[in-house]
């Protein structure tokens, strides 16, 4: 009886200790939650302060753009960019979707301002959009969402991007085709690259529609029968190698027809998050291994236009999944962000007044640097599979 009593006392004591521990654990959790909320609140307050400062900096940039003062635009845009880099991580943590909108307009302003010849109309357009994006951050409240919901939003955002890019592709392809048919070589060369930028940004999507991609984008080595060769590169050869547009009308008309067929397919497209990321990874990998050879634009040597567009299209996918990636691996988010910045800096070295240097002017060492950075980006994007 004494042993039973002692056992009961021991059990009771254990229960009381356990209850006390649980109570302390609960208190610890509550304190931890409160501490996190306090930290988040401080971070949000700091972000609002930084955004206000950036809005003032943007006002200066807009004033300098309106005055068309090159030196002032370069200085004010550089100062704003330096400040954005100092606090962008906080925006990415708290408001990842809004962060993407700011990046979309701030980064082009910075890089365009560094060029010798400034495109003031384009700078003004981006500045106006950046102003709207900063206003959204200034009034934003942090929200929490499930990964699945975030990925659904990512797919929705990327789908809209693909639709927009395809529409722009169709428009510039029509201008290109009309210039070819009119025998306007200068305009045809200009719009050859303009149209291809949109195509290269969404190439993984275009490649998913059967024979549309070969009809639009096949190189001469991709076809068994050269009489069946159509698309951009068929006309590229006529423009840069043959210097003769006679007989190109039928290829120009077919290009327009095929671009409209692509747009129709895109309109029916149902995307999923994982294939979306896989496409971006594949795009970077293909650029690093096959396009880097210079075979893509064998006659015009405008390969850097394609590579830059591939990077831009992949970055849009990355930015779309940032909210989900943040919740799983912030370190990877930072690594990918840094890799894109490094890649953009490298490509910008070969851009003069908005035009990339001819690819055949690059040294083997410069090409290897670009290839290595593209491969690194592809490897990092592959690691985002953990969020699915």
Automatic annotation (TrEMBL):
Its main location: other. Residues 44-71 form a coiled coil. Keywords: Coiled coil, Signal. It comes from the Bacteria. InterPro entries: EfeM/EfeO_iron_uptake, Imelysin-like, Imelysin-like_EfeO/Algp7, Imelysin_sf, Iron_uptake_EfeM/EfeO. One of its GO terms (cellular component) is cell envelope. Residues 1-19 form the signal peptide. Residues 154-380 form the Imelysin-like domain. It is found in: Cell envelope. The keyword Coiled coil applies. Gene3D superfamilies: M75 peptidase, HXXE motif (1.20.1420.20). Belongs to the EfeM/EfeO family. This is Imelysin-like domain-containing protein. It comes from Listeria booriae. The lineage of its organism: Bacteria, Bacillati, Bacillota, Bacilli, Bacillales.
